[in-house]
Fold this protein.
Amino acid sequence: MAKFLTLGKYSLGVGDRFAHQAKAQLQACLLAAERGTEVIPVWNKSNREHITIGSEPASTRMAADAAVQALNWPKAYHVDADHIRLETVGRFITHSDFFTIDVADCIGKPAANADIKTFVERHPELVGRIAIPGIDQPFTIERRQVELIAAKYLLATAEAGKLYRHIVEEKGEGKFITEVSMDETDQPQSPAELLMILVALSDERIPLQTIAPKFTGRFNKGVDYAGDVVQFEKEFNEDVAVIAFAINRYGLPATLKLSVHSGSDKFSIYGPMKRALKRLDAGLHLKTAGTTWLEELIGLAEAGGEGLKLGQEIYAGALEHLDELCAPYSAVIDIDRGRLPPVAAVNAWGSEQFVSALRHDLTNKSFNPHLRQLLHVGYKIAAGMGERYISALETCEKSVAKNVTLNLYERHLKPLFNL
């Protein structure tokens, strides 16, 4: 039997749009390790981000490897081909050892009747009363409900299996970590739905190590969770319980855990997540892709001079191209255009005003979540500046790195893991 690459209990997806903050990101994990908690860094960057930046997956791997070597990181680390599909995975194969398989577009597309029938007949145990440790009340599933859930998700799980096997053909069995993403859909999955998704993925023989379900509420980019925190806590606890049940009943990897996407800056749900992880002794993968890019902007603005000027220019460009920039992210941003300051006002700001508006500090009355979300999707403007932007990052490295590290450690790792 092949020896499978495994993911640590706690892991942090650290996106890095311009591949210049790997050392600063890794420093946050080093700080956590010094306080007794191992958090494995996973550098993730999607195909869409590579296209926008004009970069190649090799740059993500090179930045991660260089950071690990420079800081003598002694533990595991990974590079994630984020939200890949069959048509986009090829460019990532050589450079990634973690693949986030995105099958959200297949959810709800009806599976073949024969496949539904086969699934139901293979799993008679899914019909009837199911008691899952950690969920207060057992639930009863009728055969018709199993058929409906299978019809909704089987095509997606089959697509995940197809992509997984394609990666195996290219990299070899056991040479990479597999995540399946089902979060970019309209409704959260019920415990019964998540259980059947996991059963179907087990049938596909995918050694699944993380799964990203849909939770209630909005996970807007770069800002706090918007929704019912009590309901989120209930769903998170139930999902952790379902995963534990599926591991024991269906032979899924013991390392399987929840993955929370758009997980950066979701301060109001870190407490509920921390309680659940402690109570159930569960693992977590938290993706924090865009928060590093925003800390770059904060670091540039704090440095003043050309750094502040660049931040102001990026805001002006983002405001001018608002519709174009927001379109790909429409489901995960919520911008009130009337709350966006005019360009002239922002151009008159000093470093402190710019940083106060952008930094995610809910106690600061100057914080503007609408400006923050716009700049979150505005990295395309910085990419268009080419070497001018990269040169500014290098010139202002000390200021930028300080903000990147403190943001990840103080605002993310400490509240999640009680450091």
